[in-house]
Amino acid sequence: MKFYINRTDWGKFLGQISKTYRIYAPQEIANELAYQLLAPENVAQTIYGTYRAVQPFKTFFSLPQEKVTVVTSQPEKTIVLGVKNCDLKALQILDKIFLEGDFVDPFYRERRENTLIISSDCYQPKDTCFCTLLDNNPFPEKDFDLNVSPIDNGFLLEVGSPKGESFIASIREDLKEATSDLIEEKENKRKEAKKRVVEVNREFETKRPFSAIVKDEYASPVWEEVTKTCVECGACTNICPSCYCFLLVDTENGGKFPKVKFWDSCQHTGFARVAADVNPRAKLYERLRNRYLCKYEYRPENFGIVACTGCGRCVEACQGKIDKREVIKKLSEKEEK
Amino acid sequence: MAENPYLPVEAKIEKIIDETSNIKTFVLKPSRKIKFETGQFVQLTIPGIGEAPFTPSSSPYQTEKIEITIMKVGLLTGKLHEMREGEIIGIRGSYGQGYPFDDFYNKEVLVLGGGVGMAPLRSLLLTLLKNVDKFRRIVLCYGAKTPEDIVYKDAFPEWKKKRKLEILRSVDKAAPGWEETEGLVTVLLDKVKMDLRNSVAVVCGPPIMMKFGTLKLLDLGYKPENIYLSMEKNMSCGLGKCGHCALGKYYVCKDGPVFKYDLIKDVPDIWL
Fold first, then answer.
1. Which of A52, A196, A220, B211 has the CB geometry, 3.0–4.6 Å to A84, for a possible disulfide?
2. ipTM of the complex
3. What is the CATH number of domain B9-94?
Protein backbone atom coordinates (compact mmCIF):
# COMPACT_ATOMS: atom_id res chain seq x y z
CA MET A 1 0.00 0.00 0.00
CA LYS A 2 1.29 3.47 -0.90
CA PHE A 3 0.16 6.70 0.70
CA TYR A 4 0.51 10.36 0.00
CA ILE A 5 1.31 12.86 2.73
CA ASN A 6 2.01 16.54 2.28
CA ARG A 7 5.21 18.14 3.51
CA THR A 8 3.58 20.01 6.41
CA ASP A 9 1.78 16.98 7.84
CA TRP A 10 4.87 14.79 7.51
CA GLY A 11 6.96 17.45 9.26
CA LYS A 12 4.40 17.69 12.06
CA PHE A 13 4.39 13.92 12.48
CA LEU A 14 8.17 13.73 12.68
CA GLY A 15 8.21 16.61 15.14
CA GLN A 16 5.86 14.60 17.34
CA ILE A 17 7.88 11.41 16.92
CA SER A 18 11.16 13.12 17.71
CA LYS A 19 10.11 13.22 21.36
CA THR A 20 10.49 9.43 21.60
CA TYR A 21 13.15 8.73 18.95
CA ARG A 22 16.53 10.16 18.15
CA ILE A 23 16.21 11.10 14.50
CA TYR A 24 19.23 11.23 12.19
CA ALA A 25 18.83 12.68 8.73
CA PRO A 26 21.01 14.00 5.90
CA GLN A 27 21.92 17.68 6.31
CA GLU A 28 24.11 19.77 4.06
CA ILE A 29 27.57 20.34 5.49
CA ALA A 30 30.49 21.67 3.41
CA ASN A 31 28.82 20.73 0.12
CA GLU A 32 28.21 17.18 1.27
CA LEU A 33 25.26 15.47 2.87
CA ALA A 34 25.94 14.11 6.31
CA TYR A 35 23.71 12.29 8.78
CA GLN A 36 23.09 14.64 11.71
CA LEU A 37 21.03 14.29 14.85
CA LEU A 38 17.94 16.39 14.24
CA ALA A 39 16.56 18.82 16.77
CA PRO A 40 12.74 18.69 16.64
CA GLU A 41 12.61 22.20 15.15
CA ASN A 42 14.89 21.15 12.27
CA VAL A 43 12.87 18.19 11.12
CA ALA A 44 11.51 20.13 8.17
CA GLN A 45 15.03 20.73 6.83
CA THR A 46 15.75 17.06 6.21
CA ILE A 47 16.99 16.39 2.69
CA TYR A 48 15.36 13.37 1.09
CA GLY A 49 15.55 12.76 -2.61
CA THR A 50 19.11 13.64 -3.51
CA TYR A 51 22.01 11.20 -3.06
CA ARG A 52 23.53 9.10 -0.28
CA ALA A 53 25.09 10.67 2.81
CA VAL A 54 28.85 10.89 3.16
CA GLN A 55 28.93 8.50 6.13
CA PRO A 56 28.25 4.85 5.40
CA PHE A 57 25.03 3.63 7.01
CA LYS A 58 26.98 0.97 8.97
CA THR A 59 28.13 3.66 11.45
CA PHE A 60 24.76 3.36 13.18
CA PHE A 61 25.21 -0.34 13.93
CA SER A 62 28.90 -1.21 13.96
CA LEU A 63 30.68 1.62 15.72
CA PRO A 64 34.18 2.69 14.65
CA GLN A 65 35.34 1.92 18.18
CA GLU A 66 33.44 0.24 20.96
CA LYS A 67 34.12 -1.49 24.27
CA VAL A 68 32.68 -4.99 23.91
CA THR A 69 33.39 -6.66 27.21
CA VAL A 70 31.22 -4.37 29.31
CA VAL A 71 27.68 -3.45 28.48
CA THR A 72 27.50 0.32 28.86
CA SER A 73 23.97 1.38 28.09
CA GLN A 74 20.85 0.30 26.29
CA PRO A 75 20.83 1.79 22.80
CA GLU A 76 18.23 4.51 22.34
CA LYS A 77 15.35 4.18 19.93
CA THR A 78 16.62 5.68 16.71
CA ILE A 79 15.27 6.61 13.31
CA VAL A 80 17.54 7.11 10.34
CA LEU A 81 15.92 9.09 7.57
CA GLY A 82 16.85 9.33 3.94
CA VAL A 83 18.85 6.09 3.67
CA LYS A 84 19.60 5.25 0.04
CA ASN A 85 19.33 1.88 -1.66
CA CYS A 86 23.10 1.39 -1.90
CA ASP A 87 23.27 1.51 1.90
CA LEU A 88 20.29 -0.79 2.39
CA LYS A 89 21.92 -3.41 0.16
CA ALA A 90 25.18 -3.12 2.06
CA LEU A 91 23.38 -3.72 5.33
CA GLN A 92 22.39 -7.18 4.09
CA ILE A 93 26.06 -8.17 4.22
CA LEU A 94 26.52 -6.82 7.75
CA ASP A 95 23.38 -8.62 8.90
CA LYS A 96 24.73 -11.90 7.52
CA ILE A 97 28.00 -11.43 9.37
CA PHE A 98 26.85 -10.07 12.70
CA LEU A 99 23.42 -11.71 13.10
CA GLU A 100 23.92 -15.13 11.52
CA GLY A 101 26.23 -18.09 12.11
CA ASP A 102 27.02 -19.73 15.43
CA PHE A 103 27.59 -16.42 17.21
CA VAL A 104 25.52 -13.24 17.22
CA ASP A 105 27.11 -9.87 17.94
CA PRO A 106 24.84 -8.66 20.74
CA PHE A 107 25.88 -5.02 20.37
CA TYR A 108 25.05 -4.93 16.67
CA ARG A 109 21.77 -6.72 17.24
CA GLU A 110 20.59 -4.34 19.95
CA ARG A 111 21.20 -1.31 17.74
CA ARG A 112 19.68 -2.96 14.71
CA GLU A 113 16.53 -3.84 16.64
CA ASN A 114 16.21 -0.35 18.05
CA THR A 115 16.56 1.43 14.73
CA LEU A 116 13.78 2.26 12.32
CA ILE A 117 14.92 2.72 8.72
CA ILE A 118 13.15 5.32 6.61
CA SER A 119 14.76 5.16 3.20
CA SER A 120 14.23 7.45 0.25
CA ASP A 121 14.67 7.47 -3.51
CA CYS A 122 17.88 8.84 -5.00
CA TYR A 123 16.94 11.33 -7.71
CA GLN A 124 20.25 13.18 -8.06
CA PRO A 125 22.97 10.53 -8.24
CA LYS A 126 26.57 11.72 -8.17
CA ASP A 127 29.19 11.19 -10.86
CA THR A 128 30.84 8.66 -8.60
CA CYS A 129 27.68 6.57 -8.18
CA PHE A 130 27.72 3.23 -10.04
CA CYS A 131 24.94 1.14 -8.53
CA THR A 132 23.60 0.19 -11.95
CA LEU A 133 26.90 -1.47 -12.93
CA LEU A 134 26.12 -3.93 -10.15
CA ASP A 135 22.50 -4.43 -11.12
CA ASN A 136 21.27 -2.23 -8.29
CA ASN A 137 18.82 0.63 -8.57
CA PRO A 138 18.99 4.16 -7.16
CA PHE A 139 15.72 3.54 -5.34
CA PRO A 140 14.76 1.05 -2.61
CA GLU A 141 12.36 -1.78 -3.27
CA LYS A 142 12.82 -3.73 -0.03
CA ASP A 143 14.80 -3.88 3.23
CA PHE A 144 13.28 -0.68 4.65
CA ASP A 145 10.65 -0.06 7.28
CA LEU A 146 9.27 2.91 5.41
CA ASN A 147 10.32 4.47 2.12
CA VAL A 148 9.61 8.05 1.13
CA SER A 149 9.60 9.23 -2.48
CA PRO A 150 9.55 13.05 -2.65
CA ILE A 151 6.87 14.15 -5.07
CA ASP A 152 4.96 17.36 -5.70
CA ASN A 153 4.69 19.13 -2.42
CA GLY A 154 4.87 15.99 -0.33
CA PHE A 155 5.86 12.35 -0.25
CA LEU A 156 4.70 8.96 -1.36
CA LEU A 157 5.04 6.61 1.60
CA GLU A 158 5.60 2.92 1.17
CA VAL A 159 5.44 0.56 4.11
CA GLY A 160 8.10 -2.16 4.00
CA SER A 161 7.78 -3.98 7.30
CA PRO A 162 5.48 -4.57 10.28
CA LYS A 163 7.75 -2.18 12.18
CA GLY A 164 7.02 0.50 9.58
CA GLU A 165 3.32 -0.32 9.70
CA SER A 166 3.04 0.25 13.42
CA PHE A 167 5.21 3.33 13.19
CA ILE A 168 2.63 5.17 11.09
CA ALA A 169 -0.35 3.67 12.93
CA SER A 170 -1.11 6.93 14.73
CA ILE A 171 -1.54 8.87 11.48
CA ARG A 172 -2.75 5.98 9.38
CA GLU A 173 -6.35 7.25 9.29
CA ASP A 174 -5.36 10.65 7.98
CA LEU A 175 -3.24 9.24 5.16
CA LYS A 176 -4.61 9.33 1.65
CA GLU A 177 -4.01 6.42 -0.64
CA ALA A 178 -1.67 7.48 -3.45
CA THR A 179 -3.37 8.09 -6.79
CA SER A 180 -2.18 6.22 -9.85
CA ASP A 181 -1.02 9.53 -11.34
CA LEU A 182 1.30 10.15 -8.43
CA ILE A 183 2.60 6.61 -8.54
CA GLU A 184 3.31 6.99 -12.23
CA GLU A 185 5.12 10.26 -11.60
CA LYS A 186 7.27 8.56 -9.02
CA GLU A 187 8.06 5.72 -11.42
CA ASN A 188 9.11 8.24 -14.05
CA LYS A 189 11.40 10.02 -11.63
CA ARG A 190 12.96 6.68 -10.72
CA LYS A 191 13.49 5.79 -14.36
CA GLU A 192 15.13 9.17 -14.99
CA ALA A 193 17.48 8.68 -12.04
CA LYS A 194 18.45 5.23 -13.19
CA LYS A 195 19.09 6.51 -16.70
CA ARG A 196 21.42 9.14 -15.29
CA VAL A 197 23.51 6.56 -13.40
CA VAL A 198 23.67 4.36 -16.49
CA GLU A 199 24.84 7.30 -18.63
CA VAL A 200 27.49 8.41 -16.15
CA ASN A 201 28.90 4.89 -16.18
CA ARG A 202 28.68 4.13 -19.87
CA GLU A 203 32.47 4.26 -20.26
CA PHE A 204 32.94 1.73 -17.45
CA GLU A 205 30.62 -0.94 -18.79
CA THR A 206 32.20 -4.37 -19.24
CA LYS A 207 31.04 -7.44 -21.12
CA ARG A 208 31.81 -9.82 -18.30
CA PRO A 209 30.37 -9.28 -14.80
CA PHE A 210 32.78 -7.84 -12.21
CA SER A 211 32.89 -11.21 -10.43
CA ALA A 212 34.20 -12.98 -13.53
CA ILE A 213 36.74 -10.26 -14.27
CA VAL A 214 38.39 -10.23 -10.85
CA LYS A 215 38.55 -14.02 -10.84
CA ASP A 216 39.77 -14.52 -14.40
CA GLU A 217 42.34 -11.73 -14.20
CA TYR A 218 43.91 -12.83 -10.92
CA ALA A 219 47.37 -12.90 -12.48
CA SER A 220 46.99 -9.62 -14.40
CA PRO A 221 49.79 -7.03 -14.08
CA VAL A 222 47.04 -4.39 -13.80
CA TRP A 223 46.70 -5.06 -10.06
CA GLU A 224 50.24 -3.94 -9.40
CA GLU A 225 49.94 -1.03 -11.77
CA VAL A 226 46.80 0.45 -10.18
CA THR A 227 48.18 0.02 -6.67
CA LYS A 228 51.06 2.40 -7.35
CA THR A 229 49.17 5.42 -6.00
CA CYS A 230 47.70 3.63 -2.96
CA VAL A 231 49.01 5.06 0.30
CA GLU A 232 47.48 2.33 2.44
CA CYS A 233 45.33 4.80 4.40
CA GLY A 234 42.34 2.49 4.74
CA ALA A 235 39.84 5.16 3.68
CA CYS A 236 38.22 2.81 1.14
CA THR A 237 37.39 0.23 3.77
CA ASN A 238 36.35 2.70 6.46
CA ILE A 239 33.99 4.53 4.14
CA CYS A 240 32.61 1.34 2.56
CA PRO A 241 29.08 0.55 3.75
CA SER A 242 29.61 -3.21 3.42
CA CYS A 243 33.12 -3.53 4.90
CA TYR A 244 32.75 -5.03 8.35
CA CYS A 245 36.22 -6.22 9.36
CA PHE A 246 37.38 -5.30 12.83
CA LEU A 247 40.14 -5.88 15.35
CA LEU A 248 39.72 -6.73 19.01
CA VAL A 249 42.24 -4.82 21.09
CA ASP A 250 43.02 -5.58 24.71
CA THR A 251 43.20 -2.44 26.81
CA GLU A 252 44.37 -1.73 30.32
CA ASN A 253 41.19 -0.44 31.88
CA GLY A 254 37.56 -1.35 32.35
CA GLY A 255 36.47 -4.76 33.58
CA LYS A 256 38.42 -7.94 33.93
CA PHE A 257 39.36 -8.49 30.30
CA PRO A 258 38.72 -5.11 28.68
CA LYS A 259 38.47 -5.40 24.92
CA VAL A 260 37.75 -2.70 22.38
CA LYS A 261 36.51 -3.51 18.91
CA PHE A 262 37.92 -1.18 16.23
CA TRP A 263 37.14 -1.02 12.52
CA ASP A 264 40.14 -2.51 10.77
CA SER A 265 41.34 -2.39 7.18
CA CYS A 266 42.49 -5.34 5.09
CA GLN A 267 44.68 -2.85 3.21
CA HIS A 268 47.05 -2.44 6.17
CA THR A 269 50.30 -4.42 6.12
CA GLY A 270 49.74 -6.49 9.23
CA PHE A 271 46.09 -7.38 8.70
CA ALA A 272 46.70 -11.05 7.92
CA ARG A 273 50.16 -11.41 9.44
CA VAL A 274 50.64 -14.46 11.67
CA ALA A 275 53.20 -15.58 14.23
CA ALA A 276 56.88 -15.13 13.42
CA ASP A 277 56.09 -12.37 10.88
CA VAL A 278 54.72 -14.65 8.19
CA ASN A 279 52.43 -12.56 5.97
CA PRO A 280 50.16 -14.18 3.39
CA ARG A 281 49.51 -10.81 1.71
CA ALA A 282 52.75 -8.96 2.27
CA LYS A 283 52.50 -6.89 -0.91
CA LEU A 284 50.11 -3.98 -1.17
CA TYR A 285 48.73 -5.07 -4.55
CA GLU A 286 47.94 -8.49 -3.10
CA ARG A 287 45.86 -6.82 -0.41
CA LEU A 288 44.11 -4.56 -2.91
CA ARG A 289 43.35 -7.54 -5.15
CA ASN A 290 42.04 -9.52 -2.23
CA ARG A 291 39.64 -6.70 -1.39
CA TYR A 292 38.15 -6.87 -4.88
CA LEU A 293 37.91 -10.65 -4.65
CA CYS A 294 36.18 -10.29 -1.27
CA LYS A 295 33.63 -7.89 -2.71
CA TYR A 296 32.88 -9.50 -6.06
CA GLU A 297 33.71 -13.17 -5.65
CA TYR A 298 33.97 -14.43 -2.07
CA ARG A 299 30.96 -12.80 -0.38
CA PRO A 300 28.68 -13.59 -3.34
CA GLU A 301 29.82 -17.22 -3.00
CA ASN A 302 29.04 -17.16 0.73
CA PHE A 303 25.80 -15.24 0.76
CA GLY A 304 24.63 -14.78 -2.82
CA ILE A 305 25.07 -11.02 -2.35
CA VAL A 306 27.69 -8.83 -4.02
CA ALA A 307 29.51 -6.94 -1.27
CA CYS A 308 29.80 -3.74 -3.31
CA THR A 309 26.69 -1.73 -3.97
CA GLY A 310 28.20 0.95 -6.18
CA CYS A 311 27.78 3.78 -3.67
CA GLY A 312 31.01 5.32 -4.98
CA ARG A 313 32.28 6.49 -1.59
CA CYS A 314 35.62 4.70 -2.06
CA VAL A 315 36.10 6.52 -5.36
CA GLU A 316 35.70 9.86 -3.58
CA ALA A 317 37.70 8.95 -0.48
CA CYS A 318 40.77 7.52 -2.20
CA GLN A 319 43.80 9.78 -1.84
CA GLY A 320 45.51 7.90 -4.65
CA LYS A 321 42.58 8.54 -6.99
CA ILE A 322 41.95 4.85 -7.49
CA ASP A 323 38.54 4.46 -9.09
CA LYS A 324 37.20 0.92 -8.78
CA ARG A 325 35.35 1.24 -12.05
CA GLU A 326 38.57 2.12 -13.87
CA VAL A 327 40.44 -0.73 -12.24
CA ILE A 328 37.87 -3.26 -13.37
CA LYS A 329 37.64 -1.76 -16.83
CA LYS A 330 41.42 -1.97 -17.18
CA LEU A 331 41.44 -5.56 -15.96
CA SER A 332 38.74 -6.47 -18.44
CA GLU A 333 40.32 -4.85 -21.46
CA LYS A 334 42.90 -7.50 -22.27
CA GLU A 335 40.19 -10.01 -23.10
CA GLU A 336 37.65 -7.67 -24.58
CA LYS A 337 39.76 -5.61 -26.94
CA MET B 1 21.49 -8.68 26.29
CA ALA B 2 22.29 -12.08 24.81
CA GLU B 3 25.47 -13.91 25.72
CA ASN B 4 28.54 -11.87 24.93
CA PRO B 5 30.86 -13.95 22.73
CA TYR B 6 33.76 -11.51 23.10
CA LEU B 7 34.10 -12.06 26.86
CA PRO B 8 36.73 -14.52 28.13
CA VAL B 9 36.57 -16.40 31.44
CA GLU B 10 39.43 -16.64 33.91
CA ALA B 11 41.89 -19.51 33.71
CA LYS B 12 44.54 -20.25 36.31
CA ILE B 13 47.95 -21.40 35.12
CA GLU B 14 48.30 -24.54 37.24
CA LYS B 15 51.56 -25.79 35.84
CA ILE B 16 54.19 -24.82 33.30
CA ILE B 17 56.25 -27.53 31.60
CA ASP B 18 59.42 -26.66 29.69
CA GLU B 19 59.40 -28.59 26.41
CA THR B 20 62.36 -26.98 24.63
CA SER B 21 64.33 -23.75 24.98
CA ASN B 22 61.45 -21.78 23.40
CA ILE B 23 58.40 -24.01 23.84
CA LYS B 24 56.39 -24.45 27.03
CA THR B 25 53.21 -26.34 27.85
CA PHE B 26 50.75 -24.47 30.06
CA VAL B 27 48.27 -26.48 32.10
CA LEU B 28 45.21 -24.26 32.55
CA LYS B 29 42.23 -24.60 34.85
CA PRO B 30 39.40 -22.43 33.51
CA SER B 31 36.83 -21.10 35.98
CA ARG B 32 34.14 -22.54 33.73
CA LYS B 33 34.52 -25.82 31.85
CA ILE B 34 35.71 -25.24 28.30
CA LYS B 35 34.73 -28.17 26.11
CA PHE B 36 36.57 -28.72 22.86
CA GLU B 37 36.96 -31.25 20.09
CA THR B 38 40.45 -32.20 18.97
CA GLY B 39 41.59 -29.68 16.38
CA GLN B 40 39.34 -26.85 17.57
CA PHE B 41 41.03 -23.80 19.07
CA VAL B 42 40.63 -21.40 21.98
CA GLN B 43 41.58 -17.76 22.39
CA LEU B 44 43.96 -16.86 25.23
CA THR B 45 44.05 -13.30 26.60
CA ILE B 46 46.52 -11.39 28.72
CA PRO B 47 44.73 -8.20 29.81
CA GLY B 48 46.33 -5.11 28.31
CA ILE B 49 48.61 -7.18 26.08
CA GLY B 50 46.52 -9.08 23.59
CA GLU B 51 44.82 -12.24 22.53
CA ALA B 52 45.77 -15.09 20.21
CA PRO B 53 44.41 -18.46 19.07
CA PHE B 54 45.90 -21.77 20.24
CA THR B 55 44.86 -25.36 19.71
CA PRO B 56 44.84 -27.42 22.90
CA SER B 57 47.33 -30.28 23.04
CA SER B 58 45.53 -32.24 25.73
CA SER B 59 42.87 -34.89 25.36
CA PRO B 60 39.33 -33.56 24.92
CA TYR B 61 38.26 -36.30 27.36
CA GLN B 62 40.14 -34.47 30.12
CA THR B 63 37.67 -31.67 30.79
CA GLU B 64 38.82 -30.03 34.04
CA LYS B 65 42.11 -28.82 32.68
CA ILE B 66 43.34 -27.80 29.27
CA GLU B 67 46.96 -28.06 28.17
CA ILE B 68 48.30 -25.67 25.59
CA THR B 69 51.78 -25.88 24.11
CA ILE B 70 53.16 -22.53 23.05
CA MET B 71 56.28 -21.45 21.20
CA LYS B 72 57.72 -18.04 21.97
CA VAL B 73 57.44 -16.10 18.70
CA GLY B 74 56.01 -12.66 19.42
CA LEU B 75 54.66 -10.21 21.97
CA LEU B 76 51.84 -12.27 23.48
CA THR B 77 53.70 -15.58 23.48
CA GLY B 78 56.73 -13.77 24.92
CA LYS B 79 54.62 -12.47 27.81
CA LEU B 80 53.07 -15.91 28.33
CA HIS B 81 56.55 -17.39 28.61
CA GLU B 82 57.35 -14.89 31.38
CA MET B 83 54.28 -15.86 33.41
CA ARG B 84 54.42 -18.05 36.50
CA GLU B 85 52.31 -20.87 37.88
CA GLY B 86 49.30 -19.49 39.78
CA GLU B 87 48.80 -16.47 37.55
CA ILE B 88 45.50 -15.80 35.78
CA ILE B 89 44.86 -15.37 32.07
CA GLY B 90 41.65 -15.24 30.01
CA ILE B 91 40.26 -17.99 27.81
CA ARG B 92 37.28 -18.19 25.45
CA GLY B 93 36.15 -20.83 22.97
CA SER B 94 36.29 -23.43 21.75
CA TYR B 95 35.89 -22.45 18.13
CA GLY B 96 35.97 -23.85 14.62
CA GLN B 97 35.96 -27.31 13.08
CA GLY B 98 38.09 -30.06 14.56
CA TYR B 99 39.16 -33.38 13.05
CA PRO B 100 36.25 -35.38 11.61
CA PHE B 101 37.05 -38.70 13.28
CA ASP B 102 34.11 -40.44 11.62
CA ASP B 103 35.97 -40.09 8.33
CA PHE B 104 38.96 -41.90 9.85
CA TYR B 105 37.15 -45.01 11.11
CA ASN B 106 38.48 -48.33 9.81
CA LYS B 107 41.31 -46.55 8.05
CA GLU B 108 45.04 -46.21 8.36
CA VAL B 109 45.75 -42.79 9.81
CA LEU B 110 49.04 -41.18 8.83
CA VAL B 111 49.91 -38.23 11.07
CA LEU B 112 52.58 -35.87 9.76
CA GLY B 113 53.84 -33.24 12.19
CA GLY B 114 56.60 -30.66 12.35
CA GLY B 115 57.98 -28.69 15.30
CA VAL B 116 55.40 -27.15 17.61
CA GLY B 117 52.77 -28.33 15.10
CA MET B 118 52.88 -31.47 17.23
CA ALA B 119 50.66 -29.65 19.77
CA PRO B 120 47.25 -30.30 18.17
CA LEU B 121 48.57 -33.65 16.94
CA ARG B 122 49.20 -34.74 20.52
CA SER B 123 45.53 -34.13 21.22
CA LEU B 124 44.72 -36.01 18.02
CA LEU B 125 46.95 -38.90 19.03
CA LEU B 126 45.36 -39.11 22.48
CA THR B 127 41.90 -39.23 20.91
CA LEU B 128 42.97 -41.86 18.37
CA LEU B 129 44.55 -43.99 21.12
CA LYS B 130 41.47 -43.71 23.30
CA ASN B 131 39.42 -45.20 20.45
CA VAL B 132 42.21 -47.28 18.98
CA ASP B 133 40.01 -50.22 17.94
CA LYS B 134 38.11 -48.03 15.53
CA PHE B 135 41.21 -47.41 13.40
CA ARG B 136 43.19 -49.91 11.39
CA ARG B 137 46.61 -48.44 12.08
CA ILE B 138 48.16 -45.17 13.29
CA VAL B 139 51.49 -43.94 11.97
CA LEU B 140 53.12 -40.79 13.34
CA CYS B 141 55.89 -39.13 11.34
CA TYR B 142 57.33 -36.28 13.35
CA GLY B 143 60.17 -33.94 12.53
CA ALA B 144 61.98 -31.24 14.49
CA LYS B 145 65.03 -29.08 13.86
CA THR B 146 67.29 -30.82 16.39
CA PRO B 147 66.77 -33.50 19.04
CA GLU B 148 66.50 -30.71 21.62
CA ASP B 149 63.58 -29.15 19.68
CA ILE B 150 61.39 -32.25 20.02
CA VAL B 151 58.33 -31.60 22.18
CA TYR B 152 56.75 -34.09 24.60
CA LYS B 153 60.08 -35.92 25.00
CA ASP B 154 58.76 -37.87 27.99
CA ALA B 155 55.64 -39.02 26.16
CA PHE B 156 57.38 -40.74 23.26
CA PRO B 157 58.71 -43.77 25.20
CA GLU B 158 55.14 -44.40 26.43
CA TRP B 159 53.64 -43.97 22.96
CA LYS B 160 56.18 -46.35 21.46
CA LYS B 161 54.68 -49.14 23.58
CA LYS B 162 51.15 -48.54 22.29
CA ARG B 163 49.42 -51.17 20.21
CA LYS B 164 48.68 -50.20 16.58
CA LEU B 165 50.81 -47.05 16.81
CA GLU B 166 54.06 -46.72 14.89
CA ILE B 167 56.33 -43.74 15.37
CA LEU B 168 59.05 -42.42 13.07
CA ARG B 169 61.04 -39.33 13.93
CA SER B 170 63.54 -37.19 12.11
CA VAL B 171 65.61 -34.11 12.90
CA ASP B 172 67.01 -31.65 10.36
CA LYS B 173 70.32 -31.66 12.17
CA ALA B 174 71.34 -34.61 14.33
CA ALA B 175 73.35 -34.45 17.56
CA PRO B 176 75.49 -37.09 19.30
CA GLY B 177 73.25 -39.84 20.60
CA TRP B 178 70.53 -39.39 17.96
CA GLU B 179 69.86 -42.82 16.46
CA GLU B 180 66.80 -42.05 14.40
CA THR B 181 66.50 -40.39 10.98
CA GLU B 182 68.36 -37.26 9.98
CA GLY B 183 66.69 -35.10 7.31
CA LEU B 184 63.49 -33.23 6.63
CA VAL B 185 60.32 -34.82 7.94
CA THR B 186 59.20 -35.67 4.40
CA VAL B 187 61.95 -38.29 4.10
CA LEU B 188 60.07 -40.33 6.70
CA LEU B 189 57.24 -40.69 4.22
CA ASP B 190 59.50 -42.81 2.02
CA LYS B 191 59.97 -45.24 4.87
CA VAL B 192 56.31 -45.97 5.59
CA LYS B 193 54.09 -48.16 3.47
CA MET B 194 50.49 -47.11 3.79
CA ASP B 195 47.50 -48.79 2.20
CA LEU B 196 46.60 -45.84 -0.01
CA ARG B 197 43.15 -47.13 -0.89
CA ASN B 198 42.25 -47.00 2.75
CA SER B 199 44.24 -44.25 4.38
CA VAL B 200 43.90 -40.64 5.46
CA ALA B 201 46.73 -38.24 6.24
CA VAL B 202 46.74 -35.40 8.76
CA VAL B 203 49.32 -32.61 8.47
CA CYS B 204 50.25 -29.89 10.97
CA GLY B 205 53.41 -27.83 11.17
CA PRO B 206 55.08 -24.65 9.96
CA PRO B 207 53.79 -23.34 6.59
CA ILE B 208 56.77 -24.53 4.55
CA MET B 209 56.51 -28.03 6.01
CA MET B 210 52.73 -28.10 5.39
CA LYS B 211 53.38 -27.27 1.76
CA PHE B 212 56.09 -29.82 1.05
CA GLY B 213 54.44 -32.41 3.27
CA THR B 214 51.21 -32.13 1.31
CA LEU B 215 52.96 -32.17 -2.06
CA LYS B 216 54.85 -35.31 -1.02
CA LEU B 217 51.63 -37.00 0.08
CA LEU B 218 50.08 -36.18 -3.30
CA ASP B 219 53.18 -37.62 -4.98
CA LEU B 220 52.79 -40.80 -2.99
CA GLY B 221 49.25 -41.11 -4.31
CA TYR B 222 47.07 -39.61 -1.57
CA LYS B 223 43.94 -38.00 -2.98
CA PRO B 224 43.30 -34.35 -2.00
CA GLU B 225 40.10 -35.38 -0.21
CA ASN B 226 42.05 -37.72 2.07
CA ILE B 227 44.50 -35.09 3.32
CA TYR B 228 43.52 -33.00 6.35
CA LEU B 229 45.38 -29.77 7.07
CA SER B 230 45.42 -27.53 10.15
CA MET B 231 45.63 -24.05 8.69
CA GLU B 232 47.24 -21.22 10.60
CA LYS B 233 45.84 -17.73 10.00
CA ASN B 234 45.68 -14.45 11.87
CA MET B 235 42.57 -14.55 14.05
CA SER B 236 41.11 -11.76 16.09
CA CYS B 237 37.52 -12.60 17.00
CA GLY B 238 37.46 -16.36 16.41
CA LEU B 239 33.74 -16.05 15.70
CA GLY B 240 33.65 -15.79 11.90
CA LYS B 241 33.16 -12.03 11.88
CA CYS B 242 36.33 -9.91 12.01
CA GLY B 243 37.73 -11.01 8.64
CA HIS B 244 41.39 -11.45 9.62
CA CYS B 245 41.64 -15.19 8.94
CA ALA B 246 40.23 -15.04 5.42
CA LEU B 247 41.43 -17.86 3.17
CA GLY B 248 39.69 -17.24 -0.13
CA LYS B 249 35.99 -17.37 0.61
CA TYR B 250 36.55 -19.22 3.88
CA TYR B 251 37.11 -17.91 7.37
CA VAL B 252 39.61 -20.28 8.96
CA CYS B 253 38.18 -19.68 12.46
CA LYS B 254 34.74 -20.86 11.42
CA ASP B 255 35.23 -23.14 8.39
CA GLY B 256 38.56 -24.52 9.71
CA PRO B 257 41.13 -24.60 11.18
CA VAL B 258 41.00 -28.21 9.97
CA PHE B 259 40.34 -28.34 6.22
CA LYS B 260 40.26 -31.17 3.74
CA TYR B 261 42.88 -30.25 1.17
CA ASP B 262 40.49 -30.61 -1.77
CA LEU B 263 38.33 -27.82 -0.34
CA ILE B 264 41.13 -25.25 -0.39
CA LYS B 265 43.54 -26.50 -3.02
CA ASP B 266 42.36 -23.95 -5.60
CA VAL B 267 42.55 -20.95 -3.25
CA PRO B 268 45.53 -18.84 -4.38
CA ASP B 269 48.65 -18.80 -2.20
CA ILE B 270 47.35 -21.02 0.59
CA TRP B 271 50.81 -21.93 1.83
CA LEU B 272 51.85 -18.41 2.77
1. A52
2. 0.94
3. 2.40.30.10
